[in-house]
Amino acid sequence: MTPTTPPSPETPRPKVSVCVVTYNQEKYIAQCLQSLVDQETDFPFEVIVSDDCSTDGTSDIVMDFAHRYQNIIKPIIHQKNIGAYKNFIFVHQQAVGEYIAHVDGDDYALPDKLKKQSKFLDDHGECNIVWHRMFVKNEAADIVCEDLIQYELLPKSGFDRGDILRFITIGMNSSKMYRSSVRDFVLPNFPVVDYFANVEHIRDGKAFFVDSEPLGVYRAGIGIASSGLGTRKILADCFMYFGSRYPEHRRCVGSAVFLLMVAAIKNRRWDVVSIYLKPTVHLASFGSIIDVYKFWGISKMLRMPNAIRRTEGSK
């Protein structure tokens, strides 16, 4: 692989590191990277691109961008496939910026993303994670719509660890920026998804949305979790892990798994029911069930738009 290197004394430390994971995304990676190098900021930033041994033309496109934008693009081309989850952890470990943003290689940023999110972290010392709203795009169906987030209805005090445990997905992965000071956490003995990282990155701080404006585009239906049961099995492992690690938030974890169990039963997905049965039995309580109804208004905002859900599954 081609590693990144820390800044030299002559090169200022980037304020923001943008971590991009990609694999066989030659149709999308150029738009993703162009949207990042075109960001206008008054601070230096880097874009670390970790290509997981793509077998199409993705690596060539990444290297072309690295040649044209040598001061911004830091390519890492893996010679062996390490898998999506390990690649996610790996690329974030290479970041040297004060703040770290994540963008999947099939998504892309809109103008002012980096400037607005970094300023929000500058101005809000209690905030460890800041998300932004997204447009959601389905290529196959030629549909683009805004996410369902109603900014004015979000809690003004932000989200804490219990909220992230309860709602599972609050901000989309490609909308996330967080402080490098909270990056490191103990890895479990199962693969890590963005849910796990968010729970650990929040620490004792808060998470917010930067404002009401969408600052990125999420391509639905083509990511690693679009099909199969792998991500659901990892989520089940996460629930059991966090129920033990954070007993004070056991009720929140129980709410999350109970909601997923109800959805699986409603959709007659008995294979999914079998996955969530153990954490439901161990973690769901009467209080968890009450919370599902209590926070239903927020939960509805965090779903995929109906126009997207009627087509392909999301990432």
What does this structure look like?
With 315 residues, this protein is of the alpha/beta class. The chain folds into 2 domains: 204 residues, Spore Coat Polysaccharide Biosynthesis Protein SpsA, Chain A (Alpha-Beta Complex); 74 residues. It has 12 helices and 9 strands. Strands 1, 2, 3, 4, 5, 6, 7, 8 and 9 form a 9-stranded mixed sheet that branches. The two termini are 27 Å apart.
Keywords:
single chain, 315 residues, alpha/beta, Spore Coat Polysaccharide Biosynthesis Protein SpsA, Chain A, 2 domains
Write the layout of secondary structure elements.
Blueprint: E1 16-22, H1 29-37, E2 45-51, H2 58-68, E3 73-77, H3 84-93, E4 99-104, E5 108-109, H4 113-123, E6 127-138, E7 143-146, H5 161-167, E8 177-179, H6 194-201, E9 206-219, H7 230-245, H8 250-266, H9 270-283, H10 286-294, H11 296-301, H12 306-309
Parallel strand pairs: 1-2, 1-4, 2-3, 6-9
Antiparallel strand pairs: 4-8, 5-9, 6-7, 6-8
The CATH superfamily label of the largest domain reads Spore Coat Polysaccharide Biosynthesis Protein SpsA, Chain A
Number of helices: 12
Task: Give the SSE string.
Answer: EHEHEHEEHEEHEHEHHHHHH
Number of discrete domains: 2
What class do helices, strands and sheet pairing give?
Answer: alpha/beta
Name the average pLDDT. 92
Low-confidence stretches: 1-7
Number of strands: 9
What is the helical fraction, as a range of percent? 25-40%
